[in-house]
Amino acid sequence: MMRNLVVSCVLAIVVVCGTARGADPFADAAYAPPASKAACDALVNPIAPDVLAGYLAQLDRFHVYDLFAGQTSTLKGKYPPEKGRPLKGGEEVTLGLEPGDLFGTPVQDASGYVFLGSIQSIDAEGVRLQVDLSALDLAAEVWIVDPSVLRAFGPYKAANYAVGAFWLATVFNDESVVMVRSPKAELPNVRVVAYSHLFLSLKAVALSCNISVACESAAVRNAASGTAILSIGSSGYCSGTLINNPQTAANEPLLITANHCICSAGDARDTEAFWDFRESSCGAGDAGKMSSHLRSSGTKLLSTSSLLDSTLIMLDSVPSGSYGRIYQGWDTRLPVVGESVVVIHYPQATYNRVSSGHVLTVNAPTDSFGYEKQNEMVWDEGVTEGGSSGSSVLFTDTMRLFGTLSNGTTHTCGADRSHNMDFFSSFRDFYGQVKDYVDSATPSTAEGDNDCRSNGLCAAKVLLKDSPVLLDNLRVLRDKVLLRYAATAPFVKAYYAAAPRLLAAVEESRDARGMFLAVVLPIANMAGKAL
Fold first, then answer.
1. What are 493-518's pLDDT values in tens digits?
2. Contact by Cβ (8 Å): 188, 162
């Protein structure tokens, strides 16, 4: 029955267009229409809430941690949003909780035995558990339960999680319950390796000039159904977009984002994609709780490039939801300076927003982080923020994607928008790596190689990683002063062009580290006093 529900929600496909076989291949979007409410409710609640309530009423093993009690504001201040990096939303804590400590007295029912263990992190906005299932009995299945909304996520089985520890479903509550259903009375061999205390509320307030997708055109509202908030590992948030393979009748669950968000097989398998976190109408303010939204899980890294800052991953499945689901079209043609563009994203991991602007520069040899073949946009309406990383930029006229968000300046709202600029990767250049997945009648499912060697780091970020205030001072100086003047902007570009060489030098030489800090620290301190 569940298999039929998944098929009805995921594979009700209408292919809109194919691919041009010219010098610049492209594809238009494909659309999966909304599934019935009953079918999608079954996906949201694979175990009936009243059944879960019966299990939880007999829960007798609780683990309560107060390491971060009362520290939500402090943690947010410790990790300010930063362009070019995933938005940090949690603190990871090593746990090593063994089965005998994790589970209490099992509950017996007609299907066998149910083992339960609760893990609570006081004052958390959410909890995510890293669990080792490699020694679990093949007949057993693990579920993560959110007791606040009586919703279960899973099942997770040893056959699919045989090697290493995995981050399982996020619970947007301060308590997460591990539940194992087994035909055997023996204690299930499940270890909780770590937990993440999430301090970032997904109802945080984004900048006031961000525009809700619900206030935009039908084309933008439709495209928004293909964008997702990505929760990566213990604490990272980015944005991502479903991408269409026009050569097949079925929509493969392929998602494109930035390499600085996901650069390894481990990142890909530890990614959750949350769908339709958006207002139902302009100004409604009813995006709802994240626990109520449909989600997908990452399964495989298909291709990634640290030089192009691009990544393609495979998801387990994609439920169509109440808005249906768009698998976005793409284009490999070179953008034109001045051309109109839009980006659909999740700033600060809040509900879905859109920014509109135009192309400023094309096919730059290096961008401000040292990435290659970047395209620069300036925003006429809306902005981007931390959490927007990895979102796709689309041509306004065709709504085809042509890159993913790498980084940019610190944006502000106001009349002068000339410095609200972002760099995006080039799908034109990434296409050669992914065409066997996104433009093939017999698409490949081969796993790609990890590529995390640069990940957008520079010497200042490495050496000042424990001094976020000084780093922020440098960013503000760059964005509000140096980039605003023709005389100083070239120095910023020259610094980032040399960033890989500088990083290698400070990592290899103590003298180079000392010289770099001798120059940078006074500048950072003076900037903090002056700005």
1. 667 666 667 776 776 777 777 888 88
2. no
- Residue 184 sits in the same domain as residue 272: no
- The CATH number for 175's domain is 2.60.120
Of 198, 228, 259, the domain-final residue: 198
499 closest CA partner among 451, 461, 449, 448: 461
**Separation between Cα atoms, residue 115 and residue 103, nearest integer Å:** 6
pLDDT band at 203 (very low <50, low <70, confident <90, very high): low
Same domain, 210 and 357: yes
Range of the domain at 224: 2-38+203-438
Please say whether the beta carbons of 64 and 48 come within 8 A. Answer: no
CA geometry: angle 340, 284, 318, nearest 5 deg: 65
CATH number reported for the structural domain that contains residue 257 in this entry: 2.40.10.120
Cα(382)–Cα(399) distance, integer angstroms: 17
Give the type of residue at 318.
V
Helix (H, G, I), strand (E, B) or coil at 100: helix
* 3-state class percentages of the chain: helix first, strand second, coil last, to nearest 5: 25, 30, 45
Predicted TM-score (pTM) of this structure = 0.83
Token code pair at residue 363: 């096919």
pLDDT digits (tens, 9 = 90+) for 412-458: 888 888 888 999 999 999 999 999 999 999 999 999 999 986 544 57
pLDDT of residue 172: 93
Which tens digit of pLDDT belongs to each residue from 272-317? 999 999 999 998 888 877 777 899 999 999 999 999 999 999 999 9
